[in-house]
Design a protein that fits this description.
- Residues 81-238 form the N-acetyltransferase domain.
- InterPro entries: Acyl_CoA_acyltransferase (IPR016181), GNAT_dom (IPR000182), NAT_camello-type (IPR050769).
- Pfam families: Acetyltransf_1.
- With 246 residues, the chain is an alpha+beta fold.
- The protein has a domain at 15-22 and 113-239: Aminopeptidase.
- 42% of the residues lie in helices and 26% in strands.
- The chain contains six helices and eight strands.
- It has helices at residues 24-51, 54-71, 74-102, 114-118, 174-188, 203-211, and strands spanning 8-10, 14-19, 124-130, 133-142, 157-165, 193-199, 215-226, 229-239.
- The chain has an eight-stranded mixed beta sheet, with helices on both faces.
- β5 (157-165), α5 and β6 form a beta-alpha-beta unit.
- It is elongated, with a radius of gyration of 21 Å.
- Residues 1-10 have low confidence and may be disordered.
- The protein binds coenzyme A.
Length: 246
């Protein structure tokens, strides 16, 4: 990996890491980027998980049997059953995403001004900019009692949030540069560990955190987000004292 000593790195594309500005267009753009990338990963992952649920499979067999009895056409009955099943799973996905994103279940800062939210003393949001375009972001805030950690409320624990890199800028070290900046901030502000939670369907993010020395400490579930099943969350931790960031 090409390590960066500063916040600017040149590969095929050049980018700079800086703090989120108090600019309404920029704030809206960053939030849209977070929601779009998170939704992209979750729509396919959550819908596929829905299709594998025993309840959905049993309902699909019942629908197929009824259709076949009345239509007498195997292919037509099968096609209608598949379309209905996928539609049910998509409704489940969109319901959960809408409820999660707009009722602060998944994102506590949803509906708030991100600059104000991250402007408090021990919080920050950084963005990566390339050719005057925001291409990535990450946020740090202190842990609150609602965060996915057994040690709720500890002043020494930071929560890493909203790590997202636009697809065309991935595998260029942008996430590493953002995380490096965020971890330096955490050390300067006397945080001793960083935790984060990511859902079971966000495989690329999980692989990234494993690779960079974050350790999975536990699972939790959102049992009221999606009507068809519980969404498993993986909670990761990085100890800032032992230098385990790789
Ligand atoms: C995970 C993610 C942040 C990685 O960003 P990135 O800029 O591509 O990562 P980097 O280029 O800094 O890569 C750093 C290291 O992680 C590895 N890595 C990155 N993505 C990986 C993946 N999907 N699988 C395995 N390893 C990965 C790289 O190979 C690199 O390791 P190396 O230096 O040993 O080769 C990016 O894929 C992403 O934004 N995914 C979607 C995130 C999302 O849904 N966010 C919403 C959260 S609210």
């Amino acid at each position: 990996m090409q390590k960066t000593g500063t916040t600017t790195r040149t590969t095929e594309k050049k980018y700079t890491i800086r703090l989120l500005r108090d600019d309404q267009n920029e704030i809206e753009h960053v939030w849209e980027m977070v929601v779009r990338n998170m939704s992209r990963a979750m729509i396919s992952g959550v819908t596929l998980k829905g299709i594998r649920q025993p309840l959905v499979i049993a309902a699909a067999f019942t629908v197929f049997a009824l259709l076949y009895r009345y239509l007498g056409d195997f292919a037509m009955s099968g096609a209608i059953t598949i379309v209905v099943s996928v539609c049910v799973c998509l409704v489940n996905t969109y319901y959960g995403l809408y409820y999660g994103l707009y009722s602060d279940k998944l994102c506590p800062e949803a509906g708030q001004n991100m600059f104000a939210y991250y402007g408090k003393e021990r919080r920050r949001c950084w963005v990566a900019e390339s050719d005057r375009k925001i291409i990535a972001a990450v946020g740090i805030q202190e842990k609150t009692s609602t965060d996915n950690s057994p040690d709720a409320g500890q002043a020494s624990v930071a929560v890493l949030q909203r790590l997202v890199v636009e697809p065309e800028y991935r595998r260029m070290g942008v996430a590493d540069a953002l995380i490096k900046t965020a971890l330096e901030f955490c050390k300067e502000h006397n945080y001793e560990e960083v935790i984060l939670a990511t859902s079971e369907v966000q495989h690329d993010v999980m692989r990234y955190y494993y690779k960079r020395g974050f350790v999975e400490i536990r699972h939790s579930t959102f049992d009221d987000l999606f009507p068809l099943f519980e969404l498993k969350m993986h909670v990761f931790r990085l100890d800032l004292k032992d230098g385990s960031y790789q």
